[in-house]
């Protein structure tokens, strides 16, 4: 219907084997002036596809935004995960093993390897 629930989007990424577009709802995070996708359920199919494709599209209604994606290393994820949990805890908190936005840095660092995070940027000329 083109209605976004508090920043949710439809992520479209080409399949790593089929090359066909695959879509799934995601929660987009704006943090520190950058856009991020966090995988609350861990290494899912959309994560595997995005790792290979390195670009995709976010849709809300008829508006489509293409992007390039860069996966963050575990050390870079900690504060992004905190911000994500602050924003989306009600929807996805169950996937973070009791860790919340107020948890110590050590707890966020402990779960970071299980939750891929991608920084989104405008697409480079291809």
Provide structural commentary.
It is a single chain. The protein is an alpha+beta fold and about 130 residues long. It has one domain: Pnp Oxidase, Chain A, CATH 2.30.110. It has helices spanning about 45-55, 75-90, 105-110, and strands at about 10-15, 20-30, 35-40, 55-60, 65-70, 115-120. Strands 1-2-3-6-5-4 form a 6-stranded antiparallel beta barrel. The longest helix is centred in the middle third of the chain and has 19 residues, at about 75-90.
Layout of helices and strands:
Layout: E1 8-14, E2 21-31, E3 34-38, H1 45-53, E4 55-60, E5 63-71, H2 74-92, H3 105-111, E6 117-121
Antiparallel strand pairs: 1-2, 1-4, 2-3, 3-6, 4-5, 5-6
Question: How far is it from the N-terminal to the C-terminal residue, by CA?
Answer: 31 Å
* CATH top level label: Mainly Beta
| Average pLDDT level | 92
Q: Strand order, main sheet: write it out.
A: 1-2-3-6-5-4
- The name of the CATH topology is Pnp Oxidase, Chain A
Q: What is the total tally of β strands?
A: 6
Give a quick account of the main beta sheet: strands, pairing sense, barrel closure: 6 strands, antiparallel, barrel
- CATH H-level superfamily title: Electron Transport, Fmn-binding Protein, Chain A
What is the subunit organization of this protein? single chain
Q: In DSSP terms, counting alpha (H) and pi (I) runs of 4 or more, how many helices?
A: 3
Radius of gyration (CA) equals 14 Å
Low-confidence stretches: none
The total tally of domains equals 1
Structure, briefly:
With 126 residues, this protein is of the alpha+beta class. Helices cover 28% and strands 34% of the residues.
């Amino acid at each position: 219907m083109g209605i976004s629930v508090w920043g949710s989007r439809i992520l479209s990424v080409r399949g790593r084997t089929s090359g066909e577009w695959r879509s799934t709802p995601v929660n987009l995070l704006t943090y520190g002036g950058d856009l991020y996708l966090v995988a609350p359920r861990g290494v899912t199919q959309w994560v595997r596809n995005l790792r290979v494709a390195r670009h995709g599209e976010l849709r809300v209604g008829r508006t489509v935004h293409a992007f390039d994606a860069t996966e963050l290393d575990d050390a870079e994820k900690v504060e992004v995960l905190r911000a994500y949990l602050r924003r989306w805890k009600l929807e996805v908190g169950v996937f973070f093993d009791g860790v919340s936005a107020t948890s110590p840095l050590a707890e966020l660092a402990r779960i970071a390897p299980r939750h891929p995070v991608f920084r989104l940027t405008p697409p480079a000329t291809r």
